[in-house]
Structure formats: C-alpha cells, structure tokens
Design a protein that fits this description.
Layout (H helix, E strand, L loop, with lengths): L3 E6 L2 H9 L8 E4 L10 E2 L1 H4 L9 H7 L4 E4 L2 H15 L7 E4 L2 E5 L7 H28 L14 E6 L8 H12 L37 H4 L2 H14 L34
Parallel strand pairs: 2-4
Antiparallel strand pairs: 1-6, 1-7, 2-3, 5-6
Helix pairs in contact: 4-5
C-alpha cells in the first residue's frame, strides 16, 4: 500500500528562467549567484547537464564544457514566488505534508488514496495542476511587460513518484531515482529488486578506495589549507566592515551585495510577486 507522493521540480532555478524567458528555451543555461568569472553555477538546465555542467561547476569550466552556455544571475525572490504558486496549485488536489526544499515536496496519502490506481490518478492531477499554474505564471509575467513570453508549460517540468514505508523521508526520492539511472548504465551492479514506483531500501557499496596514507602529498600543501587565511579575513572584515579584505576574483563585484540569499533547503517568506 502506498503512503507518500513526492514531487521534484527538475533543474528548478534554470527551469524557471527558461519558463519565463523564451530566449533561453532549448539552450544550455547556468544560474550563477553573482556576475563574476570567479563564481560557480548553482543550477544548470537539462541542456547544460548533457554537456557535463552541474551544480558547483566553475564558470570557466562551464564555458569550456558547454560553449555558448547562457549564464544568468540568480533571482531568488522570483524562485520563491514561483515555488509558492506551484505549492498552492498542488494543494488544489492534495495538501502538502512537508516542503523538503524549494523544489521538493512530500504529500501524505490517506485511506483510498493509498490504492495504487487511485494514487496514480492523483499524481496525474497534481502534474496537470502544476502545468496549469506554469501557464498562468508565464502569462502574468508577459502581461507585466517583463518579456514577450508565450504561455508554455513545457520548460519547467516536475517528476512525481509514489512510495511506501518511507516514514516521511521524502528527500530520499531524488537519490533513489538517480541511483536507478546509474544502475541502468552498466557501471553499477543491482543487488536486489526494486519494485517499480515503490523503492523501500537502497544500499550503496563503495569500492576501490585508496587510504590517504598511501597517496603522495602536495608539494604546496599550504596552498590548499586556507582555513587560517579565512579566519584572518573574517576577523578583519568583522572589525572594519565587509569587503575590507577579499580574494582577487571578487574584485569586480566587491562593492555589491547579493540582493537575496539563495533558497536551497529552506524557503523564506515571499517578498515579491511574479
């Protein structure tokens, strides 16, 4: 018997940008926290991921791996607003039990909702509600004159999964799906059956590891350990004010603060609309 429904919005930050900006649709997109060559991508679109760009990829590496990638400065307040609209759309079908992150939610199933056929029907209704919300959001964005966007539900997509016996561990759903994909590419050995749509337990064995004592040390080890330097910089900036001392890669944007903190595992209060 099923107990949980999990919804994961694919490539969320980059997907929102593609959803609302038609010029980015179908192109590789990387979302960055600040406009600087010294930063990294905090999100990548599906097109960029196919080139090897992922969260944490440095901008220079992203441009090398994916020539022509569109680098977009993050708009956290917009992502939060879209998240809240999507959550409201989901709740026209079923109440959200837990928000795991800005792009993952868990829904507890009760009574007949736990029957597989009923649960699958509800999952389709949830996806339809999300698609309708995206069309509405895109239309409002265009009507506000921000872009000549044509309403489309095809750019930001959602994966919906059903599970049993999870005890509320909704954030594990994405990990299970990624593990399934990897086991299917021939590099991983499947050691037990995973019932379709109902993963109960996942075990991962790591092999071929080398003890740290068996590796050669870096001749310039002090360059890798910057904790002491970071402590000195923090102390100086605390006493004399932010950006008194900073790394050279931050020079171009040292006088600017990020407008909002990036929402990953938390969803702060919404401050702006779409």
């Amino acid at each position: 018997m099923l107990r949980w429904m999990f919804l994961d919005l694919d490539s969320y930050f980059a997907g929102v940008e593609q959803q609302l900006e038609p010029g980015l649709r179908g192109k590789p997109v990387g979302v960055v926290p600040v406009e600087s060559k010294g930063t990294c991508c905090i999100a990548a679109s599906k097109e960029a991921k196919r080139c090897g760009v992922k969260t944490g990829t440095k901008v220079a590496d992203a441009e090398r791996l994916c020539p022509g990638i569109e680098l977009v400065k993050a708009r956290p307040a917009l992502y939060i607003a879209v998240h809240k609209r999507i959550k409201a759309a989901i709740e026209t079908v079923l109440p959200v039990d837990k928000v795991w992150s800005i792009d993952e939610v868990a829904i507890r199933l009760w009574g007949r909702e736990r029957e597989p056929a009923v649960a699958r029907g509800l999952a389709e209704r949830v996806k339809a509600a999300v698609r309708a919300a995206l069309v509405e959001i895109t239309g409002e964005y265009a009507a506000a004159g921000r872009v000549a966007a044509r309403p489309s539900p095809q750019n930001l997509s959602a994966s919906v999964g059903l599970g049993a016996g999870w005890g509320g561990a909704g954030s594990a759903w994405g990990a299970v799906e990624r593990l399934r994909e990897r086991m299917g590419d021939g590099r991983y050995r499947r050691t037990g059956a995973v019932r379709a749509g109902q993963p109960l337990r996942v075990a991962v064995t790591v092999s071929g590891l080398t003890p740290v004592t068996a590796t050669a040390g870096n001749l310039f080890a002090q360059a890798e350990d910057r904790r002491g330097l970071g402590g000195v910089m923090d102390a100086i900036n605390t006493r004399f004010g932010g950006h008194t001392l900073y790394l050279g890669g931050m020079h171009a944007i040292a006088d600017r603060e990020m407008e909002d903190k990036i929402a990953f595992g938390r969803v702060p209060d919404e401050r702006v609309g779409i």
